[in-house]
Amino acid sequence: MSFRLRVLWLVVLVAVSATAATAWLTLRQASQQINDSATTDRAQLDEVVGRLTTYGSRHGTWEGVPDLVRDLRAQTGQRIHLVADTGQVIVDTDTQEDRTARPLGTMVGVVDPRPVLNLAALPAEPASRQKGVASAIAGYRTGVRFAACLTRESVPVVAAPTSTGVPQFDADLSAADVRDRPGVAEIVDGCADVAAEPGRHLADAASVQVCGSSTVEALDTCLAQAFTNDISDLAPVPARVYLGARGDPASVLTVGPLLAAAAGVAAVAVIGTVLLSRRVLRPIDTLTAAAQRLGRGDLTGRVPVRGNDELAELARSFNLMADSLQRGEERQRRLVADVAHELRTPLANLRGYLEALSDGVIAPDQELYASLLEEAVLQQRIVDDLQDLALAEAGNLAYHRVTVDLAELLETCRTAHHARAESAEVSLRVAAEPVAVHADPDRLRQVMGNLVTNALRATAAGGSVRLVASRTDTQAIVQVVDTGSGIAADALPHVFDRFWRADAARGRRTGGSGLGLAIARQIVTDHQGTITVASEVGVGTTFTITLPRVDQLDQV
User: Fold this and answer.
1) Residue 350 burial by CB count (10 A; 0-12/13-18/19+): exposed, middle or buried?
2) N or C end of the chain: smaller count of CB under 10 Å?
3) Where are the alpha helices (DSSP H) in 153-195?
4) Pairing status of strand 402-405 against strand 436-439
């Protein structure tokens, strides 16, 4: 497994462990507290709903309920808001406490104090059943008016259950607060008179009389609905009770387990970091020491490579860099030695002839001056080539790019070298189709001149040199193909090296400076192209240049 993956898995392990531990403990604590809070809240809501339902059923009115709500508020500690289905607020503890009403809580209960008629307790015969429902309606209406009157007079009420489900209301004269109260009997009698509904008879219950059906289920449904309709104008209206208020402070989670989890995760992170540091820093220390030696000029230092992970790849890259620097240093030393060698002999010749002329050893003549001039020209050419190569490799060689037709450029090159080819009895031909590139024509002629000169020099009499230009969809291809002596396979990698010559026996007068191909490669590279060579000893050599092609019409 790579080092990157190991680090990734370690980080993932720590992160997942931390997340899982924290999430589990938080969820556990939160769930426990939420469940406990929900259970408590539900129990409180059930208690409040039950107490309010009992109150409404017993008193037949919501009058006097604020006292009960105040007691429930003290008992539960919750804000209580009781509102009728009609939208009228019956009581709100926030209002009772002279505070601004807060947004309602989310716990809602339904309070319906209306009785539910037990039809099973009535006779089965339809007419008797209807009469029983009418009697229950009349009894409840009278009873609830009686209970409401007693409540307003602060007389306790007793609602005794019956088999039909309709409570029977009466005054609770046994209560201590009314037992010795004067005039209670008169209050009870007065409430009984108020409760009576003169003119209402059992047979006049129109809603019951219209119930007639062939099935027991339909009859019972109609009678139950008639009961509910006929008591709704006197029974306490159904209501909704809201417990709590949005904005109440939530329960605080216990922090002990969370701190323990955090400590455990921190311990895992510390251990993982220590292991990671030992694995990472040891090879990094080795690389640092090697880099410091490299900076001091010791190019022989290398670092050991272990494994196949990213650190091993870094070590291999460092060693490759050190190898490259060492090879560059060696090339620089060889370049200095080659330049010194190339200039030493002709300069020695010039000095010798000049000293001989100065001492009068030899007589000056036209032939001697021509020889000295040729030696000076050769040295100037080497210096110019070195300067061109240095500028090109530094990216400072000037280019004046225009659209160039390679077919025309090859024809110009053929014309320039035609005389030399004829004198060497070598056929120089062009086979080119029109193809345009965006380039510096002078620099391209310099490249082609080097290649053609080398090809003519390597081709014996009777041979041929062909200049070929072709194209693909995106590229322009130029080839210089000769039938010369060829280049050995082991020498091909060095063709573009400075001062390299295929025939080491050639001198500077017959073999060139050895810089032409290095300059040609740099010029082609600066044109975003490539130059390659293929050769076979005794058959010939082919140099291939590939350049980005342009549409000539778009460039004109």
Assistant:
1) middle
2) C
3) 176-179, 184-195
4) antiparallel
- Which own/partner contact pairs does 193-199 have at CB distance under 8 Å and 24+ positions apart? 194/145, 194/146, 194/149, 195/142, 195/143, 195/145, 195/146, 195/149, 196/142, 197/138, 197/141, 197/142, 197/145
Domain shared by 487 and 526, yes or no = yes
Token pair belonging to 403: 């659209």
Closest by CA position to 322, among listed 351, 298, 345? 298
Please say which residue of 194, 210, 235 terminates a domain.
Answer: 235
Give bridge partners of residue 81 from the DSSP assignment: 92, 242
Amino acid 301 reads: G
In a domain, 215, yes or no: yes
- 8-17, 211-220, 437-446: least confidently modelled range: 8-17
- Give how many domains the chain has, as a whole number: 3
Weakest mean pLDDT among 83-97, 129-143, 258-272, 529-543: 258-272
Rg (CA), the chain: 57
Q: How far apart are CA 42 and CA 119, in angstroms?
A: 32
Residues 365 and 469 in one domain: no
pLDDT digits (tens, 9 = 90+) for 176-235: 677 777 888 888 888 888 888 665 544 456 677 778 765 778 888 888 888 888 888 888
Last residue of a domain, one of 235, 268, 297: 235
Asked if residues 395 and 426 have their Cβ atoms less than 8 Å apart, the reply is no
User: 413-435 b/e with 16+ CB inside 10 Å = b?
Assistant: bbeebeeebeebebebebebeeb
* pTM as predicted: 0.43
The alpha-helical segments, DSSP class H, found in 296-365 are: 310-359
In a domain, 507, yes or no: yes
Q: Is 204 exposed, middle or buried (0-12, 13-18, 19+ CB in 10 A)?
A: exposed
Name the 3-class secondary structure at 14: helix
Same domain, 366 and 427: no
Rounded CA gap, 437 and 549, in Å? 5
**CA pseudo-torsion sign 506, 507, 509, 511:** positive
Do 222 and 340 fall into the same domain? no
- State the residue range of the domain holding 131: 119-235
